[in-house]
Amino acid sequence: MENKGKIYVIGIGPGNLEHMSQRAKDAISESEVIIGYKTYTNLVKDLIENKEVIDSGMRKEIERCNLTLDKALEGKVVAIISSGDSGIYGMAGIMHEVVFDREASIEVEVVPGITASNAAAASLGAPIMHDSCTISLSDLLTDWDLIKKRLECAAMGDFVVSLYNPKSKGRVTQIEEAREIMLKHKKKDTVVGIVKNAKREGENIVITDLEHMLEEDIDMVTMVIIGNEKTYVKNNKMVTPRGYKI
Amino acid sequence: MENKGKIYVIGIGPGNLEHMSQRAKDAISESEVIIGYKTYTNLVKDLIENKEVIDSGMRKEIERCNLTLDKALEGKVVAIISSGDSGIYGMAGIMHEVVFDREASIEVEVVPGITASNAAAASLGAPIMHDSCTISLSDLLTDWDLIKKRLECAAMGDFVVSLYNPKSKGRVTQIEEAREIMLKHKKKDTVVGIVKNAKREGENIVITDLEHMLEEDIDMVTMVIIGNEKTYVKNNKMVTPRGYKI
Fold first, then answer.
1. Selection from A16, A245, A212, A115 nearest residue B13 by Cα
2. A68: pLDDT strictly greater than 70
3. Fewest 10 Å CB contacts: which of A11, A39, A76, B217?
């Protein structure tokens, strides 16, 4: 008998429902069970009334994926949700890995969303008009030496750099080191955009530079975007030119 | 008298309307004039009946932005649309620059969308679960030496690399050189995902490796995603582990 279960791994975008795709809404609506970190299930609470909702605390990713697979193997359509794009530092990878590990035969569809760096970029102006890197400063799962090497390579290549997870309560020095590494290759007046709660309630936008960026409030819901050597500020907008001759 | 004109720079996502955000739909609906390259205005034709639609050919970006500003200065709400995310190699930068250049006082709102690399990643599985770079291989506006340097830095840092504009009819050697540069630092069996028309009609997904990637059909509507050293393939899905111990 064919299993009718299915797993959707859904990126709900920055948080405000208006930035979610119709496909994400439809997939949530089709699902019988909704699983996610409770901050995210709260964000979509209007869409999930009358559904089985299983929310959990942070750092329970593997447990959450196993539960998702259990429910899908029972024949249910299950949505596991994360913010931004589930395919960018989200749940898509770990969900696939849990399915592989348990050798389960179940369809997994990743529904993309608007990722945090793109949401923050839109609020800043147009800082990611040219080649860019995204680097997470969380060393929970990644060796800090590898992260430092990537920061160095990104700075050397004069990429626009988006920093995910720049700072948390227990992890405060990484952003300082990251800035030091940037300064080895980028000038201290390189433009830096700092957006807290991009494209959702409580959004706060600051445009500063590498020299002064640490004076700003930076936390886990903040995106830090460091420009390339041509990035500039005008009319309170941060813009990285693509190279057009106007 | 205050000018009631406004400019929306809208990313419509991969092309299928279901991946567009509600905010993008609402902004189009609010707009009196819609301006864009005609492939894109065609993609949203169901949303723009009874509006003034100005479509133009390729490589008319500056002209399109000037026209957008002209219309907005007449007091109209104008949407200039591009595919994917208008903030990622899209129209957001050049639109701001034209407004700056003409010293116009007009509100410009960038409405983010799902960018091509994220759409392609969702179709491949979960290749961008870790630090990544996006690099455009188009040397129309960027010095090829700078692009080569960035490819080198991206390969050295073992980033996942998304290549935008990998190849066009008149530009065929860049993807070959890019591959050579990758091979200086990445193994020849590094996983490569190639997605044509990601998340829209005519989607085609291939998973191959650095050694064999040039055997595949690659063009301007193709996204090439090169994995890092830990990226693997299982059940036809390309996955880059984040580092969880399952």
1. A115
2. yes
3. B217
